[in-house]
Amino acid sequence: MRFTGAEIIIKLLEQQDIRIVAGIPGGANLPLYDALEKSSIKHILARHEQGAGFIAQGMARSTGRPAVCFATSGPGATNLITAIADAKMDSVPIIAITGQVPLPLIGTDAFQEVDIYGLTVPITKHNYMVRSVNELLSVIPEAFEIAASGRPGPVLIDVPKDVQLDALEIESWPEPCKAIKPFQPDSGAIRRAAKLINASERPVLYIGGGIVNSDAHSQIRMLAETNSIPVASTLMGLGAFDRNSPLYLGMLGMHGTRHANLALDRADLLIAIGARFDDRATGRVNDFCRHASIIHVDIDASEIDKIKKTNCSIMADATTALDMVLPMIKENKRTEWVAEISRIREENTAGLYIEKDIFNPARLIPLVGEEAGEDTIVATDVGQHQMWSAQAYPFSGSRQFLTSGGLGTMGFGIPAAIGAALMHPDKKVICFTGDGSILMNIQELATISEHNLNIKVIILNNGYLGMVRQQQELFYNGNYAGSKFQFRPNFSQIAAGFGIKNCCLNDSSDPIETIREELRRKGPSLIDVQISPTENVYPMVPPGAPNREMISGGLK
Ligand SMILES: Cc1ncc(C[n+]2csc(CCOP(=O)(O)OP(=O)(O)O)c2C)c(N)n1
Ligand SMILES: [Mg+2]
After folding, report:
1. Are the beta carbons of 408 and 385 closer than 8 angstroms?
2. What is the pLDDT of residue 178?
3. b/e per residue, 208-241, with b = 16+ CB within 10 A?
4. CA distances from 486 to 71, 251, 345, 438 (A)
5. Which of 32, 67, 323, 534 has a C-alpha 20 to 30 A away from that of 2?
6. Mean pLDDT of the residues in the chain
7. How do residues 437-490 score in pLDDT, each as one tens digit?
8. Atom 3, ligand 1: which residue's CA is nearest?
9. d(CA 141, CA 178)
10. From the candidates 49, 303, 444, 518, which is the catalytic residue?
């Protein structure tokens, strides 16, 4: 039977078990849309290609499986770029399929021609420019294999319009591709790591997104509990370790807990697993874990020794490495170290001021978490509200917290929440956003409405680009250049215009009850919460300072 290139792409996506694709059509990908319409795949019409890219990310981050977005050539393709770069930084497997001008027009400045292949070389794990319809049979499955194998990441496939229209006789279809099985780590390195752990007096585990991607939760728990090792998590690792465990220190780094940063400063052994020594986590890097030897387990060889020289490195998937190392780990109660950790924790949390004002994020966010229940997925935008969410939301599992970590992209929250809601129609999705960030992909409220998604958008509305304002207050003598909004939109009216139920929490006579009601009700809502414009995120490590020098703004 004969199939066009466009039909081949769609058929191969179906084979890869893709049920939903987000995108926007245009001249150069119309053959693809023609074929899509005749398939079983559901199309989600985003209102901006960046939205489509982040919807795909929301699908991928919440499931761990590759997700797909479509855009046309030229401006459609360039609009995807931020979402692709974001996926690269946070190791998210998305596959972006862009239309391109026909092959004979490439290089002629044709209408809507842009070299998206060239533009995305540094921000994709791999990218393709397809030059013949035959290639599609290998390129599409291979793209899935690359996106999902090893350290996951984005893949772009640029398909000229004539390749989409060209037809091919096909007798048998290629097998769908899955992630390649992780390779076996070096057993000598595993033995050395076990020796270092058993010999250490003050070890700390530093876990990142790699634990989530590798589903290594039970192994990490076992290692921590067997050997009494306290655990600090990066932003990307939140939810991977039981927050109620006495061994859990919380998040480390710029807005981490004081006790996590101080424990790391005391450690004699750092066990970094699936974490990449990002500067937001390490603070001044020479001072990070200055008394510690370092074991680094990472699936990506290029991360090893990139920022910190290690004493023992294991290139491996976290689960595989931990499964090998665990039988060699001795039980150890570490009474002294555990007591010291308790003391550090106690000294830095006892008497901590407990916030009672519902309009303060430190009270509002945990309340939302308690009311929403454990099965809820949380997406955020970028700024103070993101850090407050990371600090205060009661996460109970991984893939529950979707946030733009490495790239820190404002505009991530709403479309990422959409992707999660599409893949988990039985779950509630909350999006904590800011009055700045929401405007960067607010058009996707139309997509929420169109599909009646169970998403609760909560705006922590401070009238500022708050995270910028905070840095200006603390490090630029209060010179609030460009961070105050001179005009403040009425977000409730905007939500109404998008057909979304809305309220301003400050107008409610019983705000707590209003939140409960909104969370109980199925379907979309937008809740505008006017918070103090001068509230800061604490603790905070000043940029460039060592983590032990975190400041608290009068709070503990
Ligand atoms: C696309 C993009 N542009 C600029 C920034 C720099 N930036 C980081 S946080 C922030 C302020 C965000 O404001 P808002 O969404 O209101 O959140 P708040 O900090 O007030 O909670 C800005 C401008 C960014 N992270 N992303
Ligand atoms: Mg703000």
Report:
1. no
2. 87
3. bbbbbbbebbebbbebbeebbbbbbbbbbbbbbb
4. 35, 34, 42, 16
5. 67
6. 97
7. 999 999 999 999 999 999 999 999 999 999 999 999 999 999 999 999 999 999
8. 410
9. 8
10. 49
Residue 112 is a catalytic residue: yes
Helix then strand count (H, E) for the chain reads 22, 20
Let me know how long the chain is.
556
Which residues, in sequence order, are CB contacts of 124 under 8 Å at separation 6+?
84, 88, 153, 154, 155, 156
What pLDDT score was predicted for residue 502? 98
The type of residue at 488 is R
Burial class (CB in 10 A: 0-12, 13-18, 19+), 351: exposed
How many Å apart are CA 253 and CA 283, to the nearest integer?
6
Distance CA 220, CA 318 (A): 9
Q: What is the per-residue DSSP string for 87-100?
A: HHHTT--EEEEEEE
d(CA 326, CA 421): 37
Tell me what pLDDT residue 554 has.
Answer: 63
- Of ligand 1's atoms, which has the minimum distance to the CA of residue 437? 15
Q: Is 49 a catalytic residue?
A: yes
Instruction: Please report which residue ranges of 228-329 form alpha helices under DSSP H.
Output: 258-266, 279-282, 318-325
With beta carbons less than 8 A apart as the criterion, state whether 205 and 273 touch.
yes
Which stretches of 16-112 are DSSP H helices?
Answer: 30-37, 49-63, 75-79, 81-89
What does the pLDDT average to over 46-75?
98
Helix (H, G, I), strand (E, B) or coil at 130: coil
Rounded CA separation 12/175 (Å): 9
Question: What average pLDDT does range 405-423 have in this prediction?
Answer: 98
CA–centroid distance, residue 252 to ligand 2 (Å): 24
What are the beta bridge partners of residue 156?
A: 96, 127
Q: 3-state class of 534 per DSSP?
A: coil
Q: Is 178 a catalytic residue?
A: no
